[in-house]
């Protein structure tokens, strides 16, 4: 055998084995196809269309207090009226088909290409589109459960395919239009027309109204017309135009009609909400619903899924909050005074009580979640930032005004002078100039460091343009709500640990299976070191305990407490309108008190109380007190005392942890200037005031050097030096609305 033939034998053998392997693979592939087709037909033939899901119409979601026995309320709002397809106008039918399934009349009940296209568009961040056909959605509602599993989706595909072949498409469309959820408790297009436009009969729905209903049904939470935020309105308008464009392509409307209707959304005309939202509990139910959505539950699951929602709201604490806010005498016209209260358990982040307003049906503005300027109640974050920066409570700062910061001159409330003061005294008496000196002179990148500490504690993100503002220490643009502030102060109460504030402890489905657990989701993080948190807490205790502290009223709960007052001033909305009307400057910035706070805590409970006035929450609070000055240490602190006295009954009296020696510092000896030129100068042995002090020498916190003068409650004539720095108008939107305030600060 020649050399060439010998070499060719292995090559032929390799080719032979390659062909055999390829043949086996081809055979297996064909067998797989045959088996798959056979399996499909077997499953298809054995799939039975089940009975209508009768439980769907009776699954009521119930919300409970933390004791898991007393009900807060229910989300059972199923408003359903069935109408024959013949009574539903073609433009209403086509609006839904254009929104959810444009191949409805021709597809076999499922649309693999539609599901793939929807997934691809969502991945690219484009307009939301439904991946399921209209038939699939109908099957899920009428024949299956709302569970999100692969097996349920698999069943849905087969039932939808079989239903599409066995049922008239018109019958499927009729069933769909009478059962799909549109939000607002409305199931079916007839109920939806009444819920959104007060139109009882579908035949009376206009084209633009039908298009908006079709827009909403895709996701009543994501496309909620009541959400007036710019992002949501833009999202709704985009989806609405998508629906109209589909109707145009289908020939339902003309190009001219599309151009006319696509300019803006139709106006809503909703009837009054269900009475189950009446009173202050309506705010609790609304907050629970929003947190459920945030936790991943769909709107139709919430109102029709038969969930058991166990909240963190403590019945005893909630009753105490209601009594403190609504049963006690309040200043002025109570109907024009708004009080927001939020109370948080520091160790867990659980919201145990919240007051958003007196009656949700009359006003949906939640004053416990609406954001406002915190005023001096923002200063504790500056104290913590200073300690983190190496300062101590006995370091001294400028207490006299005016003080020049970045070319501007700023003064204390009422032009008071305090001399050289320690950080501890500045906190006790809320001395503005000392905090300006601390943050803007004595700390490098001070405003940025204060922002970092505040956000770590849970204050909403501060706009980048305001993180370096000289006024940041007084919180002019650090918008926060009572819920935010109660949660942020709980970090000081809990030795620096923060757990996100929440009000849902657990959710179970109709089969008692746990679908959500707060213990699994919310874990504590160390926002501040225990040493910094405990020392900041010590300073805030002196606000309550010291005879010159601005929060002395909190002593009335007869247990260790800490906290801080805060007022934000500026020009009320009434005075802004008056200036605009007369085209003059009759009223000036700083003339009015727009918000008044007391945020205080014990080791077991952190509670924030906020007072505001006027329909928009932007009127002058000073008009509500005979003393002509509305301070956080007065009415807000009294409301806090009334609540905490009851909420803390039966709980053990706990002491706060000791402050850190390293953060306390040593008091600087007092230097008193001579009263006249004839008085001899002080001894050379007495050192002058200094912002730097030696390390502490004892474990016992030393007494602070406190000035003798303290602000009075009656407003004196204001000096020409501005108390508050000018800041740009505008600010973040609130839930659901909050007009930005003008700048200002007080105690």
Provide a count of the helices. 23
What portion of residues belong to β-strands?
5-15%
Low-confidence stretches: 42-47, 51-58, 126-130, 670-745
Q: If you average the pLDDT, what whole number results?
A: 79
Strand order of the largest sheet: 2-1-5-13-14
**Structural class designation:** alpha+beta
Shape: globular
Question: Radius of gyration from the CA trace?
Answer: 33 Å
Helix-residue proportion: 25-40%
Distance between the first and last residues' Cα: 109 Å
Main sheet specs: 5 strands, mixed
Q: Total number of β-strand segments? A: 18
Provide a concise account of the structure shown.
By secondary structure, the chain is an alpha+beta fold. The protein has 23 helices and 18 strands.
Description:
The chain has 747 residues and is α+β, with helices and mostly antiparallel strands. Strands 2-1-5-13-14 form a five-stranded mixed sheet. Strands 7-6-18-17-16 form a five-stranded antiparallel sheet, sandwiched between helices. The protein is globular.
